[in-house]
Design a protein that fits this description.
223 residues; alpha/beta; Rossmann fold; 6-stranded mixed β-sheet; binds adenosine-5'-triphosphate; AAA+_ATPase; P-loop_NTPase
Length: 223
């Protein structure tokens, strides 16, 4: 589904990631961890085609990304749901409209009932008509997850989705991601919260990728 073969990435100041070779299989659950600045967001951006490798071969849904045109990359990205580190919303639109935006902009408007079901699933049924500035951090993160999955992606990539949340809210968000995985979605979460990883591993066969010294490698069972 996502396959790195000897991939490197370099923003121009020397290699940030080197010799990355790994595969994310369909239905798998991965965490990505590593120190601040080690390249977690960069790795995720490679996974969704925002950045292209500066060396090596990266395959997304069986397509080598280098050589794809913008439309082809956009189609691949349409099969992925991305929860960004800073979940931004359009402040002049109610939450339901914000969540529905990926559907609206592609002209495939989500049926109102589907939208209501999705908002209910993330626990935001009561704030569908609220404006974004009135939401708490936890509500915003759950709305960002809802927005990421409204187009039924096969893969969900989340960049520090619990970064600003308290533990209870982090667990709630984790639970939603575990449920998505049980529905068959491939999940990759960048986080430096080891407690979150340990908690998840009690419930799913999550594997942990760790970035260290520019390499991305499977961490041992010590986590
Ligand atoms: N567009 C860019 N141009 C140049 N350097 C960049 C760019 N984006 C990120 N970097 C640098 O690449 C390194 C890795 O950044 P990245 O955001 O991938 O790390 P991270 O592990 O996600 O960090 P954090 O945990 O703090 O979010 C950092 O040193 C950062 O300054």
């Amino acid at each position: 589904m996502i396959a790195f073969e000897n991939v490197a990435y370099n923003y121009g100041g020397g290699e940030l990631l080197s010799e990355v070779s790994l595969k994310l299989a369909p239905g798998s659950f991965h965490f990505l961890t590593g120190p601040s600045g080690s390249g977690k967001s960069t790795f995720l951006k490679l996974c969704y085609g925002e950045l292209l490798p500066t060396a090596g071969r990266l395959t997304l849904f069986d397509r080598e990304v280098r050589g794809l045109n913008r439309d082809e990359i956009a189609r691949i990205r349409g099969r992925m749901g991305i929860v960004h580190q800073d979940c931004q919303f359009l402040d002049h639109l109610p939450m339901a409209a914000n969540v529905a935006l990926p559907a609206t902009v592609t002209g495939r408007e989500a049926p109102m009932q589907d939208l209501a079901d999705l908002m209910g699933w993330v626990g935001l049924a009561d704030v569908m008509q609220a404006m974004p500035p009135h939401l708490s951090g936890g509500e915003r993160q759950r709305a960002a997850l809802a927005r990421a999955i409204i187009m039924s992606p096969e893969v969900v990539l989340a960049d520090e989705p619990t970064g600003n949340l308290d533990w209870d809210m982090s667990l709630r968000l984790l639970q939603l991601l575990i449920e998505l995985n049980r529905m068959g979605k491939t999940i990759l979460i960048a986080t430096h919260d080891l407690n979150l990883i340990r908690t998840a591993k009690q419930q799913v066969a999550a594997r942990v990728l760790r970035i260290a010294k520019r390499r991305v490698q499977l961490a041992g069972a010590d986590l």
